[in-house]
Amino acid sequence: MIEVRPGGRRRIDRVLGPGYLSDLGELPLSVLRERRDEAAQEETDLSYLRRLLHARIDIVRAEQGRRSSGGEHSVVDQLAAILADNAIGPATGSGRHQRLEPSRAGEHRRFAEALIGDTDLSDVSTLSDEKLAKALNNYADEEVSVSSYRREVQGVMDTINAEIATRYRKGTASVDDLLDTERGGPT
Q: What is the per-residue pLDDT for 2?
């Protein structure tokens, strides 16, 4: 399970730490943007991990369904269809357009694989019903946890974005300053 460690050094520890949103009105605009960008990267990474977990949940459920219906085709033969069904289905949750790439893709894959210990999903047909059920429970529990943290991070982003928008609305920040900064001009 992912957990936030107050005072920890990981990005999620900082973004969800107690002081991250303190005194936003006193912070320079550049610091607000840095914090928003840091939170956006964490949200991207959590979304990637969540997608990995959903894929594994779909694979396990497909194998359980195949067994209960007496299906003859292996899950491996149907893998593209299984994974595509989730991709084209109706969106759920609070999805957002993500312009960033996950920064810890390998770490997240290893984490998802470690959730069920030595169970190997490369051939789910060899797993016992008990191991499949355990894998599904582990993945589902972790997906709930990851989704919860993702929503918290999105709330941090929303709070910071609201502060930035307030500054533009009140005239204490200007688009010209932003353009100058992005061009490498004065900050």
A: 80
